[in-house]
């Protein structure tokens, strides 16, 4: 069996949750390798809603091992809240020490990261990013500037206070003098970190070593990407991005696995595009077709699982999708939420942009250019509603949807390996299995 990386091929919220859930049943290890609790999956277990932001949803499959690897920024308070919510809903019966492991190298999100994220967003005159305010950016900043606190540090009370004091020296100046907030109290922070560290101890592991052992025993792995390609810190629509490498390469640096261990990369895409937060969005229709945007939002339930914000709606952008295929090395696409578009008058597909009077076929690097490019569309007829329960092969789909799929495959050069035709687990057409060896 191959190991598979799943990535968002757009701006996040592509419907990864459902695909991860399905693919989790085929893998033994499910690994999160970047981002933090800015992600969100809503799950219904025993009639109770559980929203997971940090723990892979593979936790709901009783025999799977869920790993939170070094590339994740880890908020221990959120982690324990999720464990408690899973226990109280009956989704898990015991503290899952053996099934959820957290990397000793993962960087910790501390309260001052969340505070800084919030005040920067609140006080930004222009140029707000529209972050999830979960402290993600400030935690990654500390990692890169070598001021971060890692999970292993929480377990060593003897050196932790000195490290926290060092971090607070700078943070408290920023908070009090630049942003007019209260200083963070070192003693209180230290006490809560020591307590969280002790609770965390049984979950902490050297994830890279676990993965190497799993590889030797030919265990199958699923690497679960969060957010989406266009939010990647290097390859996304900078600066309106998140602070991690959301592309498939992030699975290597974010977990310690070698490139040869990855057999397939599945890009998740919606039949249309959404974006939450600020930043350029070439095919957005909020202004041009507001009623249609509202209709798609309400049928597709396009509201953030983490913040509840309205997602902005746009037509499928094939230039951006092809870009995602390239930077991730996507070997197959999973198309979700095609049913949301059922019965529309028509569909538009963006197949090039106009920038400064020239036709361009690649994503410009500057946000300023991205904001002023004009999308060029091809118009397609939409498909009528159809009985999703009767779909056993591509040929059972309405001809218009088949044509839409063919266009996506031809333009990007990769096949659609999975089609989600409705919200239910059974409303899924698996065209080929990325885990299977060729
Ligand atoms: P941050 O990751 O909270 O710093 O937010 C940076 C940008 O990424 C903002 O535009 C967020 O709305 C966006 N973002 C972060 N996580 C997600 C996600 O899981 N889905 C969609 N957008 C996200």
Structural overview:
With about 450 residues, the protein is of the alpha/beta class. It folds into three domains: about 5-105 and about 205-260, Adenylosuccinate Synthetase, subunit A, domain 1 (Adenylosuccinate Synthetase, Chain A, domain 1), CATH 3.40.440; about 105-200, Adenylosuccinate Synthetase, subunit A, domain 2, CATH 1.10.300.10; about 270-430, Adenylosuccinate Synthetase, subunit A, domain 3 (Adenylosuccinate Synthetase, Chain A, domain 3), CATH 3.90.170. It contains 13 helices and 20 strands. A ten-stranded mixed β-sheet has the order 9-7-5-2-10-1-11-15-19-20, with helices on both faces. Strands 14, 16, 17 and 18 form a four-stranded mixed β-sheet that branches. A two-stranded antiparallel ribbon has the order 3-4. Helix 3 crosses helix 4. The protein starts with a strand and ends in an 8-residue tail after the last strand. The mean pLDDT is about 95. Bound molecules: inosinic acid.
Provide a quick synopsis of the model:
This protein is an alpha/beta fold.
Question: Could you outline the blueprint of secondary structure elements for this entry?
Answer:
Layout lengths: L3 E5 L7 H9 L4 E4 L8 E5 L2 E5 L12 E4 L4 E2 L1 H13 L11 E4 L3 E2 L2 H13 L12 H9 L6 H4 L2 H22 L7 H15 L3 E2 L1 H10 L4 E4 L24 H5 L10 E7 L2 E3 L14 H10 L12 E3 L1 E2 H11 L3 E5 L9 E10 L2 E3 L6 H6 L1 E8 L17 H14 L3 E5 L7 E3 L8
Helix pairs in contact: 3-4, 3-6, 6-7
This protein binds inosinic acid.
């Amino acid at each position: 069996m191959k190991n598979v990386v799943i990535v968002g091929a757009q701006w996040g919220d592509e419907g990864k949750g459902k695909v991860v859930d399905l693919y989790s049943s085929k893998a033994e290890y499910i690994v999160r390798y970047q981002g933090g609790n800015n992600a969100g999956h809503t799950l219904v277990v025993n009639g109770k809603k559980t929203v997971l932001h940090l723990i892979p949803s593979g936790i709901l499959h009783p025999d799977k091992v869920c790993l939170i690897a070094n590339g994740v920024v880890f908020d221990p308070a959120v982690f324990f809240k999720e464990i408690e919510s899973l226990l109280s809903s009956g989704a898990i019966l015991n503290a899952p020490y053996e099934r959820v492991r957290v990397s000793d190298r993962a960087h910790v999100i501390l309260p001052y990261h969340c505070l800084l994220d919030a005040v920067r967003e609140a006080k930004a005159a222009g140029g707000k990013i529209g972050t999830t305010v979960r402290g993600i950016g400030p935690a990654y900043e500390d990692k890169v500037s070598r001021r971060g606190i890692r999970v292993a540090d929480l377990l060593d009370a003897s050196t932790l206070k000195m490290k926290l004091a060092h971090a607070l020296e700078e943070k408290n100046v920023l908070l009090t003098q630049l942003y007019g907030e209260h200083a963070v109290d070192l003693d209180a922070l230290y006490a809560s970190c020591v307590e969280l560290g002790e609770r965390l101890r049984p979950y902490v592991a050297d994830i890279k070593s676990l993965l190497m052992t799993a590889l030797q025993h030919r265990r199958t792995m699923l690497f679960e990407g969060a957010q989406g390609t266009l939010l990647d810190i290097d390859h996304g629509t900078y600066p309106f991005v998140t602070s991690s490498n959301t592309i498939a390469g992030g699975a290597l640096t974010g977990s310690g696995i070698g490139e040869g261990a990855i057999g397939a990369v599945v890009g998740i895409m919606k039949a249309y595009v959404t974006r939450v937060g600020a930043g350029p969005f070439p095919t957005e229709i909020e202004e041009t077709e507001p009623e249609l945007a509202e209709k798609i939002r309400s049928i597709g339930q396009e509201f953030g699982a983490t913040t509840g914000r309205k997602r902005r709606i746009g037509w499928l952008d094939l230039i951006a999708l092809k870009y995602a295929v390239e930077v991730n090395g996507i070997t197959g696409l999973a198309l979700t939420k095609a049913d949301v578009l059922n019965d529309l008058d028509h569909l538009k597909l963006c197949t090039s942009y106009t920038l400064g009077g020239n036709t361009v076929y690649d994503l410009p690097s500057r946000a300023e250019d991205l904001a002023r490019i004009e999308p060029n569309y091809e118009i397609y007829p939409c498909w009528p509603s159809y009985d999703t329960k009767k779909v056993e092969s591509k040929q059972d789909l309405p001809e218009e949807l088949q044509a839409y799929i063919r266009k996506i495959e031809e333009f990007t050069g990769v096949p659609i390996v999975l089609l989600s035709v409705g919200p239910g687990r059974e409303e899924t057409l698996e065209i080929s299995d990325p885990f299977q060896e060729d």
